[in-house]
Amino acid sequence: MRRNRSILVSDAAFLLFLVLAYICIVFIAGSPNHYIQNIIILNVAFILAVVTYFTTVTAGLVLNLAFIFGYGFFIMFQTISQGETIGLNTYFWLIMTPLLTVVVWIFTLGNRQLQTENESLKKRAAQLATVDENTDLRNSVAFQKDASLFTGISTRYKIPLTLLVVKVKYWDEIRRLIPEEQLTEAIYDLSQISQSSIRTNDAIYLLDKDDATWGLLLFTDRDGAKIVIERIKDKLLELNDNGFMSKYKVKLGLKIGAVQYQPDTIENPLDFIVQAKKQLEYDV
């Protein structure tokens, strides 16, 4: 409803601006004796409107006041020096110039409201999205939802649950060496290594795309997690020898930390991630 109102205000202001511009053209055409003067004032009016569009209505109105005083002084000078009377031409521009400014401001206000609402919707969509659009992996939002379910199953049925956190070594330096368009592809290729190293009932998440960090929830104990870790590192070594070096011009390495779920020491999914990340310090 609010979005529709913003669109209506913006459209109405745009149409009104066109109507006012048309009125100005008709007025100028009907006053051939003041053609040059009217054209100059029309250009000034449009410049004030453009300034208002890119700044604020306050700046536009202040400039309009300066224009009114300047134009009034000019008319007064003509009246005193040349004996001309104040006619319709003068009153027309004194009214029309501020009107154009106000209409442009209303149009700008509607557009900015739409932009603000659009940014808000994008942020909300990003917060609610549970799948990364480039890798099709579940993200940290999905992890927090799923981890509560997994830990509940682990506690109820006494099934060991281990979280692996996988991070690319020296990612900040590597991303400077890889072209921007290849970064997403590199993350996808690395995701496939982890995906192919786990069972179908385990889950993988892209926890931080900017820092190239994944999380793997495994229904296994620490010993079982070690097997998965070795499997991931072996596949990475193989891919480094068979394609990564030629594709990305760098050798990619991984740091992997693992922590087994303990209800007494892990209070929530974020705590689960934090404790697993601490284990990365021991994998050099």
Notes on the protein architecture:
By secondary structure, the chain is α+β, with helices and mostly antiparallel strands. The chain folds into 2 domains: 2-128; 138-282, Reverse transcriptase/Diguanylate cyclase domain (Alpha-Beta Plaits, 2-Layer Sandwich), CATH 3.30.70.270. Helices cover 68% and strands 10% of the residues. The chain is built from 9 helices and 5 strands; from the N terminus they run ααααβαβααββαβα. It has helices at residues 2-29, 35-54, 57-82, 88-128, 140-157, 171-177, 180-195, 222-248, 269-278; strands at residues 138-139, 162-168, 203-208, 213-218, 254-260. A 5-stranded mixed beta sheet has the order 1-3-4-2-5, sandwiched between helices. Helix 1 (2-29) packs antiparallel against helix 4 (88-128). It is elongated. The model has no long low-confidence stretch (mean pLDDT 83).
Cross-sheet strand order for the largest sheet:
1-3-4-2-5
Tell me the distance between the termini. 55 Å
Largest sheet: 5 strands, mixed
SSE run: HHHHEHEHHEEHEH
Number of domains: 2
Which assembly state applies to the chains in this document?
Answer: single chain
Estimated share of beta-strand residues: 5-15%
Mean pLDDT: 83
Q: Give the name of the CATH architecture of the largest domain.
A: 2-Layer Sandwich
Q: What portion of residues is helical? A: 55-70%
Count of DSSP H/I helices? 9
**Shape call:** elongated
Unreliable segments (pLDDT under 50, ≥5 consecutive)? none
Rg calculated over all Cα atoms? 33 Å
At CATH level 3, the topology of the largest domain is Alpha-Beta Plaits
- What is the CATH superfamily of the largest domain? Reverse transcriptase/Diguanylate cyclase domain
Q: Which structural class best describes the helix and strand composition? A: alpha+beta
Give the beta-strand count: 5
CATH class term of the largest domain: Alpha Beta
